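[audit] Reproducing an earlier prediction to check determinism. Same input, same settings, fresh worker. If the tokens differ from the archived copy the diff job will pick it up downstream; this log only records the rerun itself.
[audit] input (454 residues):
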Amino acid sequence: MVILTRNRHERLSRLGLSGLRESYDVTLPAHEGRPAWDGNYRRVNEEVDIYLYSAFWDDRPTVANAPVIRVLAAVQKLYRGPPRLLHCVLTCSGDTKGSSQHHFVSTPTDKLQIATYKVLTNREGRYGRFLVTCSPGACTKYFSIIRASLSYLEPENQPAGQQLNDSNSVPVEFPLKPRNVIDFGTCHPIAFGHLDPYRLVEWFEMQKLLGIGRVVMYNDTLDESSSAVLFHYGRQGYLDIRQTRPLMKTRGTYNKRDYGLRMGLSTTDCLYRYLYTFKNIISMDADELIVPRSVRTLPELWAIVKRTKPFDVDVASLKFQNVNWPADPGLKADPDKDKPFQLHYMRYRNRQHVNPIGYHMKHVVDPMGCAAFNQHRCMGTVEGYKTLELWVNATLGTLHHYRGTMCNIGGAKHMNCSDPNHMVISDDMMLRYEDHLTKAVNQQLRELGLQTIT
């Protein structure tokens, strides 16, 4: 999502952005409120920098000692001394005026917190991703308003008279518990730069055909034409847009370390934000789809998978092997020119062999069982789930990855890339979606004022 300033609003309205909610029309001043879509970081100054991202109340029945508070942050690396735990600094009150206010430090001690703390210490440059879990203590009684921060200081060393405000803490959010739960939801981690509007429309409509009930996208620096498509689906209620901003100084729109650091934070934020909204959560980019082979939709696939062993137990994550569908003439993956350019999945129907387990995989997460996850794996289970992950057989379904040549890129290292003639296989499985996809895409293209399929 592009954050709009008023002097740009008129120009962007011509791209299809009219009728936006009020909060989309202005740039958020520093420390002045936190609209629902805002993913700004709040900086805590200690001996190292702590960038708070979000915090959530977790009362899942599968979590021991629930409720607990989860705090997500990017934290600068400690270079001296033994490893130390981050403590939660909490303020809670019964109303907006701060009456009956309680301020205290909660020491993380439960086993889930320690395990999650370790696996999320994934260093990217000088910073690491952290999920810190703490007891809410007195906030279980006074929980109308809760603010949370993090500190390496022991409780007895906390500064006297410390106050939490919008500049040094984040609100603890309570995940919605809607009456109607969505079977499958997609979390798109971080979107930046330019995404082809036609490819975006096709991807959104394909998500619907596969049984995805809603998409959540964490935008960084998408350009105006890409944002027009996002706002279009946002107004329809199919897309929830979250804003995330870079932590590190970068030239251009992409910094690999900064992107990798924030990706795990955005996916885990999505997990807790939609804890009770989605029965199953998928993390994927706009060039990826998880596609069943024997049936048409993911709910149909789940009905088959969950009836068979070993999947008939509570599993935090089901993983899918990757298949590349390249758009590369050098691999004899030429497009079917009889298919319209607006339907990429129909034009490019040559795929590579299924990647071995462990390469470029994606997964479907059970939010009742996963403690934290990134775009490729669940990072740990809660106490009520014993099985972390299982692989779905590639004959049932795979991850479709639509991109260029995959030689010398991660998952293609096992392939004979010096002989491209043997790397592609003709596969027309996507043609079964063509009629419905054509009709759905055309309707959206008309509404967006883009070139329709003739």
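[audit] rerun output stored. Observation attached for the diff report: Residues 193 and 364 are 26 Å apart (CA to CA).
[audit] end
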